[in-house]
Amino acid sequence: MKSWKPIIYLAIIALVAAFYVVRSRGSTDSVFPVLAAEALEPKGADGDGVPYYLETVHALKTAGIKAYTGPPIPIDPAGYSAVSPGASISSGRDYELNKEVLSGPGSGWVEWTFDAPSDGFYNIEVEYAEVEKNSSSSILYALTVDGAQPFSESGTIEFVKRWRDKTVPYLKDEIGNEIRSMQEEIGGWQTTRLVNYAISSEPLQFHFTKGRHTLRFTALNEAMRWGEIRITAPVAIPSYEEYRADKIGVETGYMQAEWHTRVEAERYSYKSHLSTQTGSHNEPEVSPDPAGRIVYNVMDGNRWKKPGEAVSWEFEVPENGIYELDIKYFQHFQGKSNVYRTIYIDDQVPFQELLHTPFAYNSKLEVHNLGSSEGESYLFRLEKGKHTLRMVVDASLLNPSLLALQSIVSDLYNLEQKLRKMTGDYGENAGDINRTWDMQASFPGLAQQLTGIRDRLNATADYLNGLNQNRTDATNSLKMGTAILDDLLKNPDQIPNKLGKFPDLQLRLGTWMDAFLSGGMTVDYLVVRTPSAKPEAGEATLASKLPYIVTNFFRTFYLKYDTKHLGKEDALEIWVGRGRDYANLLQEMIDQSFTPQTGIQVNVNTMPDANALTLSNAGGDQPDVALGLPQDMPVDYAMRGAAVDLTEFSDYKEVANRFNPGAMRSYVYNQGVYALPETQSYPLLFYRKSIFNSLGLEPPDTWEDVHKLMPTLQENGLGFYHNAKDFVGFFYQNGAELYAADGLRPGFDTVQAYKAFAMWTDLYSKYDLPREVPAFFQHFKLGDMPAGIADYNTYIQLLVSAPEIRGDWAIKPMPGIKDAKGTVVRWAANGLTSAMILRQSERKQEAWAFLDWWTSADVQLQYGVNMESFYGMEYRWNTANMAAMARMPWPEGDIETIKEQNRWTRNVPFVPGGYYLSREMEFAWNRTVVEKLPPKESLDQAYVSLEREMLRKQQNLKLSDNDQLALPALDQPFDWGTIQR
């Protein structure tokens, strides 16, 4: 039987391979009409009422505004007209540019004035260079003109940087896998016309009337150096027909000798974002063949997909002449949709057809000749020597459909709320099946409104079909949405009993909206060639895939796939309580940086469950360092003598200064410190801007503000969310402590504690906040709970999974209590994950060296940027290193809110028996809110129960009344000026 096993395995592999490689090549002769963007009636303004770029430019062009055609209008950066108080700026001569430049601001704003010679559309061109070296994010500024945003998207203007692999060719590990190179920034001056490839392939057009105007640039994340600013005429890009007539002529034959050169995509000259990365692709004819190993041989479409991400390559041609361009690519990321790239040759788009050039869906790496949809190859006139080719992810053609869907979702929500007010039905899908409705009388025009929404949804699907000349997964989903509306329109009088279909449809549409802007495309190589050259096009076929799979199968019998056999027995052992993706990146960075710097070998292994650490302790098989632990585990280990006191290391204070002292309270026990924080999660106030505006409400700043807005929300069938089990902030904001200073007994037997407990319970008994909300995120998206306090995970969910309300929600610090000085005190506890050294480790100094490296700002920042760039925003690494957190690429405006809330971090120390605190507080809450027991009496019962358990645990640990756990005091918020790198 054993002799048959290899044959059986090969047969199974062959069947599986055949199943996946055989695909339908059926074609259709259907031609889909191409709709104009205006036919979609796209959303005109954001949640603040600022019009979008598409609406702004269309309205102005309709009014007859033309492009300016005169000479550039220069603005001297050192000749600024105003600057915000406290903004740090400086001017001086730059010897590279040989002129005066301005540096800054990193916060605040700076203004310049200029005179426009005539009414028209203009571009804004800026010479710029970085100030902060190796900051991972682009430089972001908000732009206003004459005191107002010209359009919504001007709230974030991106000045990209240039990056490249530091080590080329890539290094290899002990078993032959390539190690991804560290990245380095290519500094220096750049010139750009302000552009946003999510909304326009060409530079943004600004309307200036004749006369004086003011430009204000407000810093959003970091400073930059400003060279000359120029107000310029938009460049008229010729059509290909015009380009060919001008540059090439009408000849049909070209006498150049056959010549071609291949440019490997992974050997790029620079890229605009760290998130853009090379990848390892494994199929026949890929170049180069990985031969069973990890070889970074393509530009990875999973990591080159966001609008504005650019990659540039260099090539050289042997003589002046005519050339063609082939691109070997693969893209099946968008469900049969096109993706788009704007293509530059030597920093210019040669002709209009290279704006948002489509690349069709395919299922393998295929060689695509750059040309028209009719099959005509594009010809390029190139001079002898070096040239650059740059491809930029472009989603501008999809912007009208995105705005249209946002508008449709908004209209569906507003319609749903009107229906719920009319029916009084604020449930999920209850309705009153015994009641009959005459909707024509009760809600005149309802059918017409739904018909209009359905027609706009159909138009959006038709627009996308016209772009792709194909029915895509997205448009099929939209058609399912129109089917839901058709079902409602069959009997409008039954709509009050089908209100659950409205949120269902909104969620269905939102699922597809975010995917529209993702334009992933994997590129293997580019070929520049003369028209007569026909280099061999290596593409995978069924005939080549089967032997390729078989070869890789047999490689598994003799290739090594782990490094345990390579003599790393003396390596530092690190266990990571996270997924494999996190551990793999950590190992990669250790191999790139930590081991070369220190000579310390490291093995990283995943720990699926933190309880495995407890079992390993019992079995005597522990790692040296454990990462990703729950925040209570280090002190729990410290109580049992199983964790290392980090204050034993000479440079502990220097390392500890990287973190918020309020967070470090979680790791203090008996005057020792037993862990360092890795990540943190903090509370934030979330609110829906459009709903608050429609009700005339302001987001609350204090708990008193929350009390005042509740009647208005509840009158409109809306709610406010706060986790009923979260009590810590109320105590600390009122100046109450949860434990006595010696850590041996509870501390909430004070007047301040009784006041805090009453404030907490009053929210649910007096102000009727919902006591249980299984999914605040869903309620917030649907709008029936337009405000609430939730943690950082909700913030990420909204960024990633709520495109239908993008621009319609914002964050503020959580509400607090005003003190005697008028300062709003916002104390709250942060959730942490922890890094700990085990007491049984025989490599404590090496382990501490690792934690020193791992928790440093630069490493944490690089790790965070890499995680997000490799796997998406949902993997954002919310580092506890305060300097790194401030430098992460946060969206516009959010970082100030996040920094303000993190000033007020005040975690509850862990003490013997402290695990009873949450339990007893929950019991006390139930007694007061549910059973109506007076707050003081209920809290006193909790005090007695917790004191009893703490005493029992102290006896178990052999602590006496003379022991002083000396809990760290904290009465001042964190000062951002003290952060350490």
TrEMBL record:
Residue numbers spanned by region Disordered: 272-291
Polar residues compositional bias, start-end: 272-281
Alphabetical list of PANTHER family matching this protein: ARABINOSE-BINDING PROTEIN-RELATED, EXTRACELLULAR SOLUTE-BINDING PROTEIN FAMILY 1
Annotated protein name in UniProt: ABC transporter substrate-binding protein
Organism for this UniProt entry: Paenibacillus nasutitermitis
Biological classification of the source: Bacteria, Bacillati, Bacillota, Bacilli, Bacillales
